[in-house]
């Protein structure tokens, strides 16, 4: 049964997170699991919620918006983790509690304006391009602190911290070490911006070793996704 599969995946991921925490002397409670449910049916999200998961992540508005609407009664925090175009901001602000992919001033302005209009407060994580190439999303490390100041000044948004995806051509640990340094620098200016969203199915232990507070896990929880067809 699907529920048993998901329960087994969840137990396994939870064990991996616990082991990764203990390996570096961190408490398990310092790390939140975000179940990345992109491409999965709403039924999977419902099962996750029944099993006690409270944080779910999605990366495409077209898919996330109807799912969030269908599951609006569940006690879930919705994380938007994909690249975000300004023309989708109105929709995303309607259901997302946390946006992990804030990487440019225009996006900050759009989210702020829409959050104020809808009377919502959106937690914004600044996505960093750890390879210094903003092509796949993420701000350059050198631009991070200026962007943080903009979020801190804007209405309707709260500066939560940083987010990154490990580059494909580098050991994740090395990349996450740079993310940790950036997170420390950010917190010197903005002490409450303590969230570090890093680590996926393949590299969650490395991310936890370098201070991740939120890991975003899909495959290891829910199985391989079908190849994505647009
Ligand atoms: C899909 C996705 C994840 C989860 O990846 P898995 O390898 O399936 O765990 C995490 N973060 C982002 C931004 C994603 O798009």
From TrEMBL:
<comment type="similarity">
    <text>Belongs to the pyridoxal phosphate-binding protein YggS/PROSC family.</text>
</comment>
<protein>
    <recommendedName>
        <fullName>Pyridoxal phosphate homeostasis protein</fullName>
    </recommendedName>
</protein>
<dbReference type="InterPro" id="IPR001608">
    <property type="entry name" value="Ala_racemase_N"/>
</dbReference>
<dbReference type="InterPro" id="IPR029066">
    <property type="entry name" value="PLP-binding_barrel"/>
</dbReference>
<dbReference type="InterPro" id="IPR011078">
    <property type="entry name" value="PyrdxlP_homeostasis"/>
</dbReference>
<feature type="domain" description="Alanine racemase N-terminal">
    <location>
        <begin position="30"/>
        <end position="224"/>
    </location>
</feature>
<feature type="modified residue" description="N6-(pyridoxal phosphate)lysine">
    <location>
        <position position="38"/>
    </location>
</feature>
<comment type="function">
    <text>Pyridoxal 5'-phosphate (PLP)-binding protein, which is involved in PLP homeostasis.</text>
</comment>
<keyword id="KW-0663">Pyridoxal phosphate</keyword>
<dbReference type="Pfam" id="PF01168">
    <property type="entry name" value="Ala_racemase_N"/>
</dbReference>
């Amino acid at each position: 049964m699907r529920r048993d599969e998901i329960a087994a995946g969840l137990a396994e991921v939870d064990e991996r997170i616990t082991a990764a925490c203990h390996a570096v002397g961190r408490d398990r409670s310092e790390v939140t699991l975000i179940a990345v449910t992109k491409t999965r049916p709403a039924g999977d999200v419902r099962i996750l919620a029944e099993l006690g998961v409270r944080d779910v992540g999605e990366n495409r508005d077209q898919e996330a918006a109807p799912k969030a609407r269908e599951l609006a009664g569940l006690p879930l925090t919705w994380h938007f983790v994909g690249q975000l175009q300004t023309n989708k901001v109105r929709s995303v602000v309607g259901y997302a509690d946390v946006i992990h992919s804030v990487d440019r001033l225009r996006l900050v302005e759009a989210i702020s304006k829409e959050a104020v209009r809808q009377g919502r407060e959106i937690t914004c994580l600044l996505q960093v391009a750890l390879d210094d190439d903003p092509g796949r999303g993420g701000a350059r490390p050198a631009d991070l602190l200026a962007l943080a100041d903009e979020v801190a000044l804007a209405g309707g948004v709260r500066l939560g911290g940083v987010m990154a995806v490990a580059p494909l051509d580098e050991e994740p640990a090395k990349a996450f070490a740079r993310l940790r340094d950036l997170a420390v620098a950010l917190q010197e200016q903005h002490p409450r911006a303590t969230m570090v969203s890093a680590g996926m199915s393949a590299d969650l232990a490395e991310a936890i070793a370098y201070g991740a507070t939120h890991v975003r896990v899909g495959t290891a929880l829910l199985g391989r996704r079908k190849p994505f067809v647009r």
